[in-house]
């Protein structure tokens, strides 16, 4: 069984993906970490994020075992990931890795921006998790303040909201694998949902898809 979960930044898709993976005892892949990994390497080595050839080469040699989720959650890494993810050759380089993960025996849960449209279009269950830009910015803002990356000020929140708007435009407007709702996907808006009711809605959608 493959569960494909798409959605914009800070919509809650990662949290729901992890919960569903634990519930069904399936391996989980946050595909955004792949792009964060590429972006982080580009930043650390001083490469321009718009250098497609270098980004592609890094993507082709990326190892899942080297990805540290905690270290890749920083604000600058997220922005870098959004930039390199818009490069078609980078997405192509990571395609096989993601499809191999999805096709493993027993199935898997994957979340990202193009799981149900490109990576696993034949997934048994497809979810699209969303929330208002303002709520997603509040979530990311609280996370960054908690990590000590931002000051708890109105200006900082507005900066995060602007980042969210930029990423949404980049993710939805790119020519290669834009963020869209896949045919047959169940849309869950988590703007006004706490984690438990959001998980209940996601679980109900998966169970309905499996009937």
TrEMBL record:
It catalyses: CMP + ATP = CDP + ADP; dCMP + ATP = dCDP + ADP. It is found in: Cytoplasm. SUPFAM superfamilies: P-loop containing nucleoside triphosphate hydrolases. It holds the Pfam family Cytidylate_kin. Residues 3-204 form the Cytidylate kinase domain. It comes from the Bacteria. ATP binds at residues 7-15. Its EC number is 2.7.4.25. The keyword Transferase applies. One of its GO terms (molecular function) is dCMP kinase activity. This is Cytidylate kinase. The gene is cmk. One of its GO terms (biological process) is pyrimidine nucleotide metabolic process. It is an enzyme of class 2 (transferase). Keywords: ATP-binding, Cytoplasm, Kinase, Nucleotide-binding, Transferase. Belongs to the cytidylate kinase family. Type 1 subfamily. GO terms for cellular component: cytoplasm.
